[in-house]
Please model this.
Amino acid sequence: MSNKTTAPGQNSSHTLWGGRFTEATDAFVQRFTASVSFDQRMYRQDIRGSIAHARMLQQAGILTENECTAIVDGLLAIQTDIEAGNFTWSVALEDVHMNIESELTKRIGLTGKKLHTGRSRNDQVATDIRLYVRDEIDVIAAELTRLQSALLDIAEREADTIMPGFTHLQTAQPITFGHHLLAWFEMLDRDYSRLLDCRKRLNKSPLGAAALAGTSYPINRHYTAEQLGFDAPTRNSLDSVSDRDFAIELAACGSLIMTHLSRFSEELILWTSAQFDFIDLPDRFCTGSSIMPQKKNPDVPELVRGKSGRVTGHLIALLMLMKSQPLAYNKDNQEDKEPLFDLIDTLRDCLKAYGDMIPAIKPKKDNMYLAAKKGYATATDLADYLVKKGLAFRDAHEIVGKSVAYGIQQKKDLSELSLSELQQFSDIIADDVFAVLSLEGSVQARDHIGGTAPTQVRAAVATCRELIATR
Ligand code: ARG
Model:
């Protein structure tokens, strides 16, 4: 789009609301109060809403068929021009709503002035944002699904790949890389259902609430709701024009999505370091250093981690915006858009970056395996072995603790100790212990729903595939 915006100061907005005014708006105030520079991105939703309103007015006998046709055709022609970059936005006309309405009147004459019958910009903007947020939720949800299915693909491929699992970022127990990726899948799955829940709640039509109290015209709110794909009209006109809960809910969903992506990022950044060296990120997702020739920096995950703060910041901004507003509409509400738009853009970009990057990460399986061998990851398995041979868990814990201390002293893993070395700590340890102490034995033993055993990982992938196929 290469649409132009004209400078303020012309006061052509007086043609829309200037009847009671005797002096022109201050040039700075005009710029200060205008929202067209950012709300013009809702032009499609604004036109969609206006077309539904015009059709309803015709049905109610308020517009003639010819008038309705002129309005609808005029609005569609304006949309075509905006999309072709042939539209001049005027700051003097304040916002997207008045820019489009005034252009309509310029094009079709007097009939254009009838479009606003039984409507206010208050219910108009409330309708537009809901439509906009609904459209964007659909895009974000599709990006989430794309990322989730990429995770399933890798999880299946890496169902047998062993890596260390951490708690406190200290080696805890061996896990499979596939299992780790499925944990990320679950986080995103909750995000997806939260988004849909937010979409469901916002999908009510505020159109017809007019300025705040409703309108004296015989409007049909069910008709406009249905035309716009809303489930029903909202129940209370005051609430309709003042409610921005849906923006806050989306910001909250978005903050959690970004929190999750930020956690994934943190792990990817650690894993690409020379100290972990668990994965390789393809060059196209990284950049170099202008001074250190050896550097390959994981910029994409780092930026995503950084941008999570910005989205959560917008959530706080929206909460603060609303917290002291009396009913019903207040101009404060115009401040909802920039945070909302920015968080939507940020979410889309970050999810796109992840959807492109995740399928391209290459696990360094040997390094993961060697890392899992360090840090006595199978110590719990030895304790469980002793319990299965009749010891109480606390006694087994004590015995294994001593074995680990001995291993540290000898610089050997538990699996590298000889049978007689192990038997120093308990004479019930027998030859069958070595199967238990292997990394493979350890992951295979966790063979129940939600466990890390390769067969469980494959089963979970299958279940999750079904889950996202029905979306
Ligand atoms: N640009 C305004 C907004 O974003 C539209 C509604 C203006 N309503 C009003 N009564 N001034 O909220």
